[in-house]
Amino acid sequence: MRKNAHPHSGRAFTERRWILPFFASLLISLTLFLATLFGIFSSPSDGDPLSLDFISFSPMEDSSDYFVESDLKISFDQAGRSNMEAPRIAYLISGTKGDTQRMRRTLQAVYHPRNQYILHLDLEAPPRERIELTTTIKSDPTFREVKNVRVMEQSNLVTYKGPTMIACTLQAVAIMLRESIDWDWFVNLSASDYPLVTQDDLLHVFANLSRDLNFIEHTPIAGWKLNQRAKPIIIDPGLYLSKKSDIFLTTQRRSLPTSFKLFTGSAWIMLSRSFLEYCIWGWDNLPRTVLMYYTNFVSSPEGYFHTVICNTEEFNKTAVSHDLHYIAWDNPPKQHPRLLTIKDFDNMVKSGAPFARKFTKDDSVLDKIDKELLGRSEGRFAPGAWCIGSSDGGVDPCSLRGEDSVFRPGPGAERLKELFQKLLSEDLYSKRCSFQTSESVNRSVH
């Protein structure tokens, strides 16, 4: 019997076993398909049974809900401060060896209880100077009570032409963002800077401006700067040494970037909080990309913020090409501005700028500015409406504080308004972050 059996009968029986599972799975698939089909073409409610409202076969109009970068941007937009409140300004005042007294004088000249202040004395200054600066701040009763002045505990080496100046500025901004939510603009000053208007003048005028404006002198980089700044690769010793030295060039050169355009301008800035939040958080990564590029760039402080803001659609229309400083250059201009003296006083006042640089320590022109523009006495704050004490007997009227949202603007406010009328005119507005040269614009407002 076994010999006469068909040799393939066992295999045929075995292969028939798939038929039952096949038809079972086919029945299940057909059932699911029909359920899905009728589910799509039936309304979840009693509406039109052919309604397709809850499913779309067209491209999504707004896909921002799916990306975390959009959530970050929205969160910062909603956290904006009301323009109805009087503005507040965050200051970084930086110095180096021998600048302790100059920094203290500049601080007193720009002090106001509404503002925030960070002092940075770089690593070249000996520890005793840093201790002296900290002790001075802690011993002042106004600073101790208001608590709006800080000294950076971590000192950095700062090379002006290298990226260490940018790193120090970004660190100060990050500290300001962490420590205080109450500021609208950020200003960087050095110990050789000095104000030409009172803080009452400045805050009064800025109260009528959009909090989104960024004052940053900028122009597309071109000509000799392309070859002497953009193409060389530099090393900043301040990134890895404990003693300051100048940058040095490598033998290598590089091509220009193609994913963003390069801009240059003044290293002295007044930037909005919203733009600096973007620079710190960088939710689309451009600020970090540009920062890495400028790590090896000659005079990177004169290009980093300028390149970021002019390559960002959200902010490039907010850039006003002025650094709010009066600066006098030799003719032809050299790498550093010339020192200001009494001879420059009238031109400083006529410029309408709220700040000026560079001054030597205790130059007589500073005393003239104190007396005629700020109303400040030696060793005291520049007075404002917040100073409500009596000056009888030589007492400092700022020793008694009043309401810090009340301002008493003077002639400096009128000069500043005239400057802003030029800067914010329709003609200059259309040239913001333009790829055309802006030298004529800068000449018209300086």
Name the helicity range. 25-40%
Question: What is the structural class?
Answer: alpha/beta
Q: Describe the biggest sheet?
A: 5 strands, mixed
Average per-residue pLDDT, rounded, comes to 82
Number of strands: 14
Return Rg in Å. 32 Å
- How much of the sequence is in beta strands? 5-15%
Number of domains: 1
Regarding quaternary structure, what we see is single chain
Strand order of the largest sheet: 3-2-1-4-11
Spans with pLDDT under 50 lasting ≥5 residues? Answer: 1-14, 37-60, 436-446
Tally of separate helices: 17
Shape: globular
Task: Note the gap between the termini.
Answer: 115 Å
Organism: Nelumbo nucifera (Sacred lotus)
GO cellular component, one term: membrane
Transmembrane segments: 20-41
Subcellular location: Membrane
Please tag this protein with its features:
5-stranded mixed sheet, 446 residues, 14 strands, disordered C terminus, 38% helix, alpha/beta, disordered N terminus, 3-stranded mixed sheet
Tell me what the structure shows:
It comes from Nelumbo nucifera. This protein is of the alpha/beta class. It has one domain. Helices cover 38% and strands 11% of the residues. The strands form five sheets. The chain has a five-stranded mixed sheet with strand order 3-2-1-4-11, with helices on both faces. It has a three-stranded mixed sheet with strand order 5-14-13. Strand 1 (89-95), helix 4 (100-110) and strand 2 (116-121) form a beta-alpha-beta unit. Helix 8 (199-206) packs across helix 15 and helix 11 (286-294) packs antiparallel against helix 12. The model is unreliable at 1-14, 37-60 and 436-446 (pLDDT under 50).
